[in-house]
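Hi there,

I know you've been waiting on this one. I reran it after we fixed the sequence typo, so this is the corrected version. Both the input and the resulting structure follow.
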Amino acid sequence: MTDGSIPTGDVVSPRFHDRDGATIAPRRRRTAGGTTEPGYDDGRPAAEGSVHGSGTGASEFAWAFLWVAWHLAVLVVRHRVVAAQVCNPPDVFWPLALVMRVTGRGWIFDHHDLSPELYACKTAAPRPFITRFLTWFERLSMRFASEVVATNESYRQIALTRGGCPPERVTVVRNGPAASEIATPTSADATGGKRIVYVGVINEQDHVDRAVLAAERLAALRGRDDWEMVIAGDGERLPGLRSMVDERGLADVVRFTGWLQAPEVDALLRGATLGIQPDIHSDMTNLSTMAKTVEYLARGLPVVAVDLLETRRTADAAGRYVSTGDADEFAKAMDELLDDERGLAQMRAIARERFTSVLAWEHQAAAYLDVWRRVVPLPGGTAQPTVRAEPAPASEHSS
């Protein structure tokens, strides 16, 4: 998903023995502690992201293609780059994949978003021909790739079915921070009050207004004295949410922080009681893993969310699930949990166990490096890749 920010350029190359592989994408401005929903600096040795330029639709896709094509050409000409990894959206880079493959170079397609489903959830009346166009480009992006990296099992199934990829070319590599980057929460992190947090992008499809409405219902259920909801992040809906809070008289229980740096978000989450994921059911949300949910679990933070397939696969018993995302459902679930210290303690332990044993980057790195080894075979098969960063010129494009 794009976050509506101004792109600047990074190129980061995993170096394999005496040959290079490059991951290139316009870098996005960070929101709420470095996250760009649903992806963030996810632990892979790459500066990954998507483009949002001044235009929309075709003009934005063209800008993305030209940006990546230029930097890829520079890498191929000036450096001994024999493979590249590019993530979506948009799914417009398959002609570059074809050129790379024809010239004997590898190409990894990093499948971050379901473009047809993303279009449907961001558009009031999706046009069938645009959906078919996006689906076709997604399929070409997968078919022309040497390898496809999927962020979860649902994305892998789409690569196998809609993308027509053979199973051996599709690898699940989940996005998440490294366990070494996240300190174990302690009692010293507690703030004294009960705090519900939302961390992430605040755009129309994120439905953060449902969190605000849930706070209003929660105030009616338990009063306003022993809790607060903190919404950290920015986006196109933030001004409207601020107005909603003022109009409904919720300023004493709902607080906005705006964009936070990573250490500030870490402190916020470590001192929180619950994390809320207000995404409602759609094909996109049901099949996607939300970055904020992994960030919550990494700090041992229980999650209240709509019962979505990949959310449940991610949080498991560290989540309390509601059926539709109605404000009353969210409020009831949060009210019950805020008074259940034993249940919260169990969910915190499960959240940390889920992160440290499954979701942390350390558990994904081996699969990711195996992908690169298949694309760029190493002499003897024993050399370990290192990471080398190369700054690219900042884009002059602005939004």
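Quick highlight: The two ends are 16 Å apart (CA to CA).

Best,
R. S.
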